[in-house]
Specification:
196 residues; three-stranded antiparallel sheet; 0% helix; globular
């Protein structure tokens, strides 16, 4: 990449209010997950807040936005995305619930794992006990463990590592407190970079 525009990638823009807050690409399928505060995608109001694009920028209609879309608002939104090794999608933010089968379900707060078709993976429950505050950033390890940075004040819970079954990984403990974490990234040697 030399910084010039790739004119073969042409994605439709939103026609309503809002913008993009996070993206992640599946290294296997090359498909791109896009989330933000947008209320439609290319004029399609059923595609709001979270979509999946094909590698050429066209909309992937096999992925549903329904689990997340209608629950978003000015104070409830998606801020971070991360892919699990099996292709499922972790979605973090300030939302208080998700849609399951068209019905709001408030047992999933701040963090949810979606199946590859966009439906909620109910084997990964995230109650207020597990996630006491909004998610700021996510990062996954090759073995499926998930780092979660949240807005929880000067508290060790602001940075946690979860197991694929939605329990806290007790082998990871933040040495001291951290405040105002804004981003995290995993290095090739497995160490975690934390910025804020």
């Amino acid at each position: 990449a030399d910084g010039t525009f790739d004119n073969t990638f042409i994605a439709p823009s939103t026609t309503g209010a809002g913008g993009v807050t996070a993206m992640v690409q599946d290294p296997v399928s090359q498909k791109i997950y896009v989330t933000g505060t947008f209320v439609d995608w290319g004029g399609d109001a059923a595609r709001d807040s979270l979509i999946r694009l094909n590698a050429d920028g066209t909309l992937d209609g096999t992925f549903s936005s329904g689990a997340i879309g209608s629950l978003q608002g000015t104070s409830s939104r998606v801020t971070s995305l991360a892919l699990a090794p099996d292709g499922k999608l972790y979605v973090g933010g300030s939302f208080f619930g998700v849609n399951i089968g068209g019905t709001p379900n408030y047992n999933y707060q701040y963090l949810v794992r979606l199946n590859t078709d966009g439906t909620v993976d109910t084997s990964f429950p995230t109650t207020s006990t597990l996630m006491p505050s909004q998610v700021i950033a996510l990062a996954t390890l090759p073995d499926g463990r998930l780092y979660v940075a949240s807005n929880n004040g000067n508290n060790p819970q602001q940075l946690r590592r979860l197991l694929p079954n939605a329990t806290v990984d007790a082998s990871f403990a933040l040495a001291g407190n951290a405040t105002n974490i804004a981003t995290i990234a995993i290095q090739p040697d497995g160490k975690l970079l934390v910025g804020g």
